[in-house]
């Protein structure tokens, strides 16, 4: 079962890479442009489509930003910002930016898919925030090697944090994650605070592990050239957090392992 989901995660990545492809050395895929022009997408800690208008505003404000305006969303879209999730933006509007037409997203249209001004502000959607300053928490990383820490490390992280790190190394490479330090609020099923690793370009597919407590997790090696790390903290009890190092690996070195995995 685990093996199966592992393989399918790989299929998915390959499919996506083909669907989007490279242009000027950049993989044209929404997630890598997540912070395009200061605009980024957020969902609730509870999952997709859980934020009222008021909560959506609070999410952006918490991270030092505010709701994106239509103009900002469109400006980001024009440089490749593409997200297939409807979210609140300024003045109680809901919509999402589509760059590439597809049957399952945006009704085959391109542009900001605009659901208009919502009369009912208790409806639940995701959110599009605007914050042009670099965020300490999360980001899109393309370096060959880098050390990543929880916000504030080695001081304790704060409550109510959600950070996504999308790591993309060169096509054909893999990503190795090696933990240097780990101390996250302990909880039986890691439901309170946790770090998750996804063998995927987002956190919808390819969950490879969820970690909490103070045992150092084992090294992780991706199947493709992209991974996502998601760190979440709840509303009470913090800890010093984690520090890890990721490194790009040339997958030729690993082709033996890959063969074993493939049917
Ligand atoms: C507003 O939306 C919420 C959530 O979808 C729903 O529960 C509520 O009944 C709606 N209120 C009105 C007046 O339509
Ligand atoms: C990986 O391959 C690149 C290009 O072929 C090469 O420059 C680099 O030194 C290799 N890295 C390792 C760790 O083998
Ligand atoms: Ca906590």
Structure description:
- The protein has helices at 2-20, 53-62, 70-78, 255-261, and strands at 22-23, 26-27, 39-42, 66-67, 87-89, 93-98, 111-117, 126-130, 139-141, 145-149, 162-168, 173-183, 194-198, 207-211, 220-221, 226-232, 241-250.
- The chain is an alpha+beta fold.
- It folds into two domains: 24-130, Mannose-Binding Protein A, subunit A (Mannose-Binding Protein A, Chain A, Roll), CATH 3.10.100.10; 139-253, Spermadhesin, CUB domain (Jelly Rolls, Sandwich).
- The strands form four sheets. Strands 3, 4, 5, 6, 7 and 8 form a six-stranded mixed sheet that branches.
- β5 (87-89) and β6 form a beta hairpin.
- The longest helix has 19 residues, at 2-20.
- The model is unreliable at 1-33 and 257-263 (pLDDT under 50).
- It binds 2-acetamido-2-deoxy-beta-D-glucopyranose (2 copies) and calcium ion (CA).
- Residues 1-19 form the signal peptide.
- InterPro entries: C-type_lectin-like/link_sf, CTDL_fold, CUB_dom, Link_dom, Sperma_CUB_dom_sf, Spermadhesin-Link_domain.
- Residues 38-131 form the Link domain.
- Keywords: Cell adhesion, Disulfide bond, Hydrolase, Signal.
């Amino acid at each position: 079962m685990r093996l199966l989901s592992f393989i399918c995660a790989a299929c998915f990545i390959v499919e996506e890479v083909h669907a989007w492809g490279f242009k000027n050395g950049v993989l044209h895929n929404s997630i890598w442009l997540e912070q395009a022009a200061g605009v980024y997408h957020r969902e609730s800690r509870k999952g997709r489509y859980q934020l009222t208008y008021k909560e959506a505003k609070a999410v952006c404000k918490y991270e030092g930003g505010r709701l994106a305006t239509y103009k900002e969303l469109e400006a980001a879209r024009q440089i490749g910002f593409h997200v297939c999730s409807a979210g609140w933006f300024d003045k109680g509007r809901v919509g999402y930016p589509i760059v590439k037409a597809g049957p399952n997203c945006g009704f085959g249209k391109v542009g900001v898919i605009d659901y208009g001004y919502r009369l009912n502000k208790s409806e639940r959607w995701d959110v599009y925030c605007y914050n042009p300053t670099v965020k300490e928490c999360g980001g899109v990383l393309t370096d060959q090697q880098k050390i990543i820490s929880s916000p504030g490390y080695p001081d304790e992280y704060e409550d109510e944090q959600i950070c996504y790190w999308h790591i993309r190394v060169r096509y054909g490479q893999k990503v190795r994650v090696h933990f240097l330090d780990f101390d996250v609020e302990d909880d039986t099923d890691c439901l309170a605070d946790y770090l998750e690793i996804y063998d995927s370009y987002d956190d919808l597919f390819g969950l490879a592990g969820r970690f909490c407590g103070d045992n150092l997790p084992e090294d992780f090696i991706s199947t493709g050239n992209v991974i996502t790390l998601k760190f979440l903290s709840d509303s009470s009890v913090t800890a010093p957090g984690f520090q890890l190092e990721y490194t790009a690996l040339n997958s030729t070195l690993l082709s033996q392992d890959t063969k074993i995995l493939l049917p």
